[in-house]
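Team,

Forwarding the record for the chain on the shared tracking sheet. I've put the sequence and predicted structure together so nobody has to dig through attachments.
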Amino acid sequence: MTKCRWMLCRLVLCGILGCCVAGTAMAIAAPAETKAKSAKAAPAKMTDEQMMAEMMKLGTPGPNHEMLKKFVGSWKTVTKMWMGPGEPQSSDGSAEYSMILGGRLLKDEYKGTFMGGPFEGFGLTGYDNKKGRFITVWGDTMMTGLIEVDGTYNAATREMTFKGMMNMVGPPTPYRMVTKFVDDNHFVFSWYERREGKETKTMEIDYTRQ
């Protein structure tokens, strides 16, 4: 073997050994470092009693569930819909609200008309103690999917507000739902959509207690 070839082999061998040593060092150091990070980030383990107490706390209705009881009862509705510029289409209907599951969820059953035909809707609204937000789910005879969105309640203005993205027909459209209590026997639901960069009211339902 010539001197040049011997030197080349030596350089290659040193490079291989260097990689092996470095790799071994990383393999040894990495678990230790990962273990240290995991130990530092790991939350304190809860006992069975603590877990049960937390579950009971999160599963117990509170003041926000009491607020939902304002809706309970039978209501007469007048719906206005703006399909475009001009006067809205108007129709009458009725709604029945009741609390279920021990006061944890508000059930909403709606019956009315839409474009001259029968229309029915069904909704559930609750307050998630863990998330700290209201959750509502809605389905009706105009769709096969469900609207599911979360929101907040402003006690000062007596308004519930939910925001979401409608993705049924055409491009996704941002929307906002606002329910405002006028008094204990009257509330108004408004639906707003963002069209061409501007928010527009497209529906309003006036509820009067029966």
